[in-house]
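PT: before anyone asks, these are the final sequences, not the draft ones from last week. 497 residues across everything. Please model them as a single complex and drop the result in this thread when it's through.
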Amino acid sequence: MTHLLSIADLGRDGIEEVLSVAEAFAEVERRPIPKVPTLRGRAVATLFFEESTRTRLSFETAAKRLSADVLSFSAASSSVKKGESIRDTVETIEAMGMDALIVRHASAGVPAQVSRWVRRCKVVNGGDGWHEHPTQALLDCFTVRQAKGAIEGLRVLIVGDIRHSRVARSQVLAYSALGAAVTLAAPGSLLPPSLDGWPVAVAGDLDAALPDADVVSVLRLQAERGSGAFVPSLREYAAHWGLTARRVARMHPQAVLTHPGPMIRGVEIAGDVADLPRTLATRQVTNGVAVRMAVLFLLLGGHGTTVPRAAG
Amino acid sequence: MAERERSHTRGGVFVPRSQILSASDVHRALVRMSHEVAERNGGLDDVVLIGLQTGGVPLAVIMATLLTEAESAAVPVGTLDVAFYRDDFGLRPVLPEAVTDVPCDLTGRVVVLVDDVLFTGRTIRAALNALGDFGRARTVQLAVMVDRGHRELPIRPDFVGKNLPTRRDEMVDVSEHGVVIGSLQ
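LR: through. Structure below.
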């Protein structure tokens, strides 16, 4: 793996490799001392030009559990405020001897651009605008596979603000690469302007689509990206597209719910639904660390078995 | 890890040259080593067998069965994959089937590491580091089916099935079906 910018970089084999290595790290997390010396002497920097709780903490925890050194950069308290460009910022951080950069930015394509500027660092997309959030989709697949046994043949229903969601784009690629059938359910205004080339079906009616789903991926209304203007009101959105207890009752008894967080209870998901055993949000967070350990491990020189490599 | 399994990651195939131990030789060695474990420790109190992934695991399982029969007391048996503790990091793949499963807290226990081949000693060094994360064992002992020499670290086995002088470029394949010496081609 050179960089992880998009799920498309991985393909089915690459995704399977990450998931199987993540299995090994999930076991490490259950140990009395959940830390291994694998990346001792390596340094990982998180470069976040946009706020985050989960992704940054998860990557930093993952790096620390692999014994890597972690440097945390946040644009709000940096020289970016004085006008330093992203390129100069990246070159400065790389010059400090970093081995991997986790980049988040409100604009699509910034991690890819950063990957062209770096000399030897590996770049991981930690979420770029509406484009992609590959590690989120990987941890969703890992969690669903853990709950359902396999992804192949599952029917995945993605509900909510798909237009502004980088998670949705990564999920569509990952779930379909692993052989699941993906359906999108959203008000017309929150669907992407074009779905040309997307391997998905669209459901106009959430209530009709719910009974057929094995996995329901609930997405947050991205108010910071202006979603508010795309719906008449939050209450109306919640009434038509929110996962309420009444809607969950329509789901198959074995079907599960995922949510990438942060959850806005009472809008896209009702408070009591968020706390149901079939809602895997907390498990997703736990698994996120193992999956990001696997990504860092594979990027910084380790390998699983799907890609046999000559070694000496 | 079994050398034969590892051979594909080095871009070659294992070509056998001669059989060193037959299946019954291996079984007899396992019976003897099991008795030695019980003898050395005055029984099986606190003894835990840990098989190193992947070659040591089946041997540890057989030894645990033999010990249970001989001493009429159950011995906990676990598995350990040291991929994340190796100093030649990245040279060996993380095998999905190579699970780490340590059945109990190792604090105060007598841990017997079981592996198929003792070579440079680096796997055992990594295993000792890994064990530390599961508690402070009272003592750690090492049982190997084959000691092939060429140590690069001050590590020695406590129980040996067969001392087998080898050339560095040779490979030794161990299973319950026998011990075969060969090379990578």
